[in-house]
Amino acid sequence: MRCFTASLGAETNTFSPMLTSRDGYRERLHVGPGEHPERPTLYAAPLWVARQRAKTKGWDVVEGSCFAANPAGNTVRRDYEAMRDEILAELRAAMPVDIVLMGLHGAMVADGYDDCEGDLLSRIREIVGPKVPVGVELDPHCHLTRQRVAASDVIICYKEFPHTDTVARAEELADIIEAQALGQVKPVMSVFDMRMLNGFPTSRQPMRGFVDKIMSMEGKDGILSISVAHGFGYGDVPEVGAKMLVVTDDRKEFGDALAEKLGRELWDLRDELRPPALSIDEALDRGTARNQGTVVVADGADNAGGGAGGDSTFILRRMMERGITEAALGPIWDPVAVRMCFNAGEGTSFQLRFGGKVAVTSGQPIDARVTVLKLVRGMTQTFAGELRSVGDAAAIDVDGIAVVLISTRLQALGTDLFTNLGIDLAQRRIVVVKSTNHFFAAFGPIAEEVLYTSAPGPLPRDLRTLPYKKLPRPIWPFDENPWK
């Protein structure tokens, strides 16, 4: 089995003022053929799985380049086209191949390209022809466009949010594509547009039960795979929105009906899917009212994982105004402040301005006397077995609150974001994390309670406040009943 595999991933917030250049990919993942690390990475799980099958099943694997950037604004056109063309040239050089496995994000936008993945996959199809199976793994926060569905044989999205199952889904993708190449199955995809923008965290009900249900259906009645494409509401593209995807073994009509049935089930649950959000003061009141245990508060409005700057100061300022202590907050992206802390050294107290730099939605900077608690060069945090760099990092104490400052923009993922800097979370009554839900895998088990806030920020909870220009209508919550 001769397999070509490569990866290109970026979650694009089209409302973000921060463009994504090739340097943004070099900061996260930018490796040539055969240079991918000996561990899975978020968008390149199919490549890692193919490597394992080269060892266990004798696959002849041709590895292409792998590119991934942290979420931000549109990718610069010339950089997207250059990375795309590198992958396509590597595929041409590898021909003939029996199968293609691609690891993509699914919400990548570049100047002039609303659907980068659809563009890339269409060009891949032109190279390999109609008979070579093409399998694609996508992040569920994708735009499941008609172009990419037409260019692929099988698409599978991660089921979990937080995304802890990337390797498991890549294994399933490889199984189906291999079986197709051997003539054992004939995959067909069915897509149902749920006509809504919503959040689907699988760390709580009812989404937890729904995912368990669809997983129990796979492998029966010719059902090869079921995915929920959550969509990415911060991408202003013509095919944004949640969609249900069912892959069957040559049962198109059955798959179409099942996709609609499951999609309408989720539509009926739309008001229950997203966790309730509290105001900043409501969340802080709940946290300070507890006499034991740690309350974790999620600031999703400033989630770097959704393309935000990760430097807003609204919650921290309010904590300082209220005199809250025995607390921690992070991360705040501020390379200048990190450098100043390194210049000062551990144990030094000095006047520091930090945060509030990227945009109006970041709030005003904090000006305070701080004490440098700990400094770490090239620090990482852990997520789903992957080490993610936050660059040089500093822990500071400001009015009894331990704050993590980082030089590489990233959301809160693992508890080692704090513990690597000597911050004992068990000693903190309130821990504020800048993340929407990926934090939950690590922080949920240590939390007495997890709360979600609707703080100001560049990722507003109410999507109706965003200036869309390409939004497909009708769609909920812009239209109360898009089914009319």
From TrEMBL:
GO BP: any one term: proteolysis
Function according to Swiss-Prot or TrEMBL: Involved in peptidolytic degradation of cyclic heptapeptide hepatotoxin microcystin (MC).
Keyword match Iron: no
Cofactor(s) for this UniProt protein: Zn(2+)
Keywords: Hydrolase, Metal-binding, Metalloprotease, Protease
Family membership noted in the UniProt record: Belongs to the peptidase M81 family.
Protein name: Microcystinase C
Protein species of origin: Stella humosa
One GO MF term attached to the UniProt entry: metallopeptidase activity
Domain (Microcystin LR degradation protein MlrC N-terminal): residue spans on this chain: 2-286
InterPro entries: MlrC, MlrC_C, MlrC_N
Top-level taxonomy: Bacteria, Pseudomonadati, Pseudomonadota, Alphaproteobacteria, Rhodospirillales
Cofactor note: Binds 1 zinc ion per subunit.
Domain of life: Bacteria
Microcystin LR degradation protein MlrC C-terminal domain span: 297-470
